[in-house]
Amino acid sequence: MNYLKLYLNIYNEWYMKPFSANVRFIKSISDIKDKPGPALPEIAFAGRSNVGKSALLNAIFNIKKLAKVSSTPGKTQLINYFQVDDLFYFVDLPGYGFAKVSKSISASWQKMIEDFILKSENLRLVCLLIDSRHDLMKSDEAMADWMNYYQIPYIVILTKCDKLKKTKLSQQVKYFKSKFPDHHIISFSIHINSLKENLIRYFDDLL
Ligand SMILES: Nc1nc2c(ncn2[C@@H]2O[C@H](COP(=O)(O)OP(=O)(O)OP(=O)(O)O)[C@@H](O)[C@H]2O)c(=O)[nH]1
Ligand SMILES: [Mg+2]
Fold this sequence. Notes:
Layout: H1 3-12, E1 23-29, E2 42-47, H2 53-61, E3 79-84, E4 88-92, H3 103-119, E5 123-131, H4 138-149, E6 154-159, H5 166-179, E7 185-187, H6 193-206
Parallel strand pairs: 2-4, 2-5, 5-6, 6-7
Antiparallel strand pairs: 1-3, 3-4
Bound molecules: guanosine-5'-triphosphate and magnesium ion.
Guanosine-5'-triphosphate (GTP) is lined by residues 47, 49-55, 69-71, 73-76, 94-95, 159-160, 162-163, 189-191.
C-alpha cells in the first residue's frame, strides 16, 4: 500500500497538493448496522474526550477541517468514517471519560464504542490515544483491560507530545512502556512533523 508513502513524498514537497485529496468523510453512524460499504479494512481511533483523536486525523492528512476538532471535550458524538481511496477506512470514535455529559449519554457513547469494536468484522487495529502529559487514567486503564479481555489488537498513541520537554517526554514514554509492555507505543503531536511522519509510516507498513 503505497498511498501513505506517496503522501509522505509529496508532503516533503510543500508546494504541492498532498495525498489529502484522496481522503473523504463518508458518514456518521450510531449503529454498526448502518456502516458504509464497500467493506474495507478499518483503523479506529479511541480515547478520552479531548485527547486529540480528530485532530490527529486532520494532521496526518494535512486538512484542517476533515474531522471536527474542539477545545471543548465531547465534540465527536458519533462514529465517523473516513475513506482513503478504495483502500481503507479511518474511523473516528466518540471519546469517553468526559465528566460533563449526563450518565445516560456517556453510557450510550460507551455502548456505541464497544459495539463497534466487537462487531466490526473489518476492524484491523484500534489506536488508543492517551495524553502524554498525564499518568494512566482509570478510564484508559478500563478501556485497555476491556480490549485485552476481548483480544482486540491495539497500539497506544501518546498525544500532545509538543507540550512536554524532551526529558519529561522520555520519562513518560518509559512509564507507558511499563504499563503496556505488550503493545506498540508511538509518540505523536499535531505540531511536530517528524512524529506525524513516524505515524504515517507505521500505518503505511500496516496496510
Ligand atoms: N498542543 C496540542 N494540542 C492538540 C494536539 N492534538 C489535539 N490538540 C488539541 O486538543 C483539543 C481536542 O482535540 P480533538 O481532536 O477535538 O479531541 P478528540 O479526542 O477528538 O475529542 P472528542 O471528539 O471530544 O472525543 C483541540 O483543541 C486540539 O487542537 C497536539 O498534538 N498538540
Ligand atoms: Mg473528536
